[in-house]
Amino acid sequence: MKNIFRYITLLILLVLQHIFVFSQQRFPKPEFESGHTQPQMILTEPSSVFIEYFDVFILILSLSIITWFVIKKRSRNGVFWMTLFSIAYFGFYREGCICSIGSIQNITLALFNPEYHIPLTVLAFFVIPLLFTLFFGRTFCAGICPLGAIQDIFIFRPVSLKSWLQSLLGLIPYIYLALAILYAATSTDFIICRYDPFVGIFRLDATFPMFVLGGIFLITSIFIARPYCRFFCPYGVLLNLVSRVSKKHMTITPSYCIQCKLCENSCPFGAIEYPQEIKISDQRKLAVNRFVIYCLIIPLLVLIGGWTGYRFHETLSRVNPKVQLANELLNHDNQFEKEESIEIETFKSLGKTEQELFTEAASIINDFKTGGWLVGGFIGLVFGLTLAGLSRYRYRADYEPNKGTCLSCNRCVDYCPVGTENEEIILKKLEKEKLES
C-alpha cells in the first residue's frame, strides 16, 4: 500500500513539473534546419532619457529665473524660493543626479579615454552653468546647485573669517580638483561622487560615515556659511575663474554707493570688498622689487610642487583597482599559506595571466608619475599666485562684491538703502556725522 502511494505521489510531481515547464514556454522556440535562432528581445527605457533631457530644460529655466531675480529684480526672497525648489527637485526628487560638480570627472574621462562616450545631458550640465556664470556671475551657486542650497538654509549665526584664513582654506578646492582630474584621467575612481557629503542624504540611503560627514557640513554651515562650497567644491574653482570675467555681475547698490556702511557685515561668505584709498607710500622701486621676488618664488614653488607630486605618485596610484590587485598578487605569492581573496579568484577565473596584469599596473603607475608632476606643479602654481594675491593692492572707491568668490545670494542688496525711502534719511545722517567730525 505504501509503495502504491509513493508511485502516485511521484506521478503527481512529474505532472506538476511538466505543467510548470509548459507554462514557462508555452510556445517553444522554432527549430529550423537553416540554423535560425529566436531573436533576443531588447527593452528600451525612453522615460529615463526623457527625464534626463527634461532635467536640462529645468536647469536652463531655473538658471534664467534666478538670474532675473539676482540681476534685474534684485530680490533676496526670489533667490530663497529658488533655493527651496532646487533642494526639492534637483536634491530629493532627482537624488542629486545629474550633478554639475561630478560632471568634471565625466569630461576628464572622455578626454583621456576614447572608449568612453559622454552623455549629452552630462555635458550640458557641465557647460550650461559655466555659460551663465560667464555672462551673469555665479547665479548657479546662488540657489540652483542642490549641494549649496541645502547648506544655505542652515546659515543662522555666521561668523566672519580672516582674509588670510579664507585664502588658505581656499587652496583645498584646487587640490581636490587636481586629484579628481588625475583619478578620472587614469580611470581609477570618481572621488567627487564617492565622497559627496549630501547625495546620500538626498537619496535617503547614506551609509553611517557619509551621513555623519553630511551632518558635520550642515552643522558647520550654521556658523561657517557654506563650508563645502567655499573650501571644498572643485566645480567652484571653475566658476570662480569664469565669474571674474563675467559681463554683468550683481552689484550691492543699484546705482551709486553712498558709503553708508550698512552692507559691511551682511555677506556671510566674506565676499564684500571695502573701499581702499591710494597708498602714496607705494613707490615704484618697492613695487618692482616685489614683482621680481614673486617672479622668482612662483617658478620655484611649481618645481617643488611637481617634485613632491612625483615622489608620491606610487602612493597615489595605489587607489587604482588594477594596481591594488597587482600588489595583492605579489604579496600573495610571497605568502603561500595565505588564502586567496575573492578579487584574486575572480581575476584567475577571467583567464588573464599575471604578467598581463603587472604590465597594465606598471603602465598605470607610469601615468601617475606624469600626473604627479602635473598635479604637484599645478598646486605649487596656485599656492604662489595666492601668496601674491594677498599682497596685491587694488584701488576701490565703493563697496563691491568680489566677482570670483561672490555667490550671488543677494543678501547684501537688502541692506542697501539706495533707491528706497530710507536713502534720504541715511544721507542726512551721514552728512551730520561728517559735520560733527
Q: Helical content, roughly?
A: 55-70%
Written as H for each helix and E for each strand, in order along the chain, the element string is: HHHHHHHHHHHHHHEHHHHHEH
Mean pLDDT: 84
Number of individual domains: 2
Largest sheet: 2 strands, antiparallel
Main-sheet strand order equals 1-2
- Strand content is under 5%
What is the number of helical segments per DSSP (H or I, 4+ residues)?
Answer: 20
Count of β-strands: 2
Query: For the terminal residues, how far apart are their CA atoms?
Result: 121 Å
Shape: globular
Overall SS class:
mainly alpha
Specify Rg, calculated over alpha carbons.
30 Å
Low-confidence stretches: 4-32, 41-46
Write a concise keyword list for the protein shown above:
437 residues, mainly alpha, single chain, two-stranded antiparallel ribbon, 2 domains
Describe, in plain words, how this protein is organized in 3D.
By secondary structure, the protein is an all-alpha fold. It has helices at residues 2-24, 46-73, 76-93, 103-112, 120-136, 139-143, 146-152, 163-169, 172-185, 191-194, 199-203, 208-221, 227-231, 234-243, 284-311, 313-317, 321-334, 342-349, 354-390, 423-436, and strands at 272-273, 400-401. A two-stranded antiparallel sheet has the order 1-2. Helices cover 62% and strands 1% of the residues. The longest helix is centred in the C-terminal third of the chain and has 37 residues, at 354-390. It is globular, with a radius of gyration of 30 Å. Helix 3 crosses helix 7 (146-152) and helix 17 (321-334) packs across helix 19. The model is unreliable at 4-32 and 41-46 (pLDDT under 50). The chain has two domains: 61-276 and 400-415, no CATH class; 284-390, no CATH class. It has 20 helices and two strands.
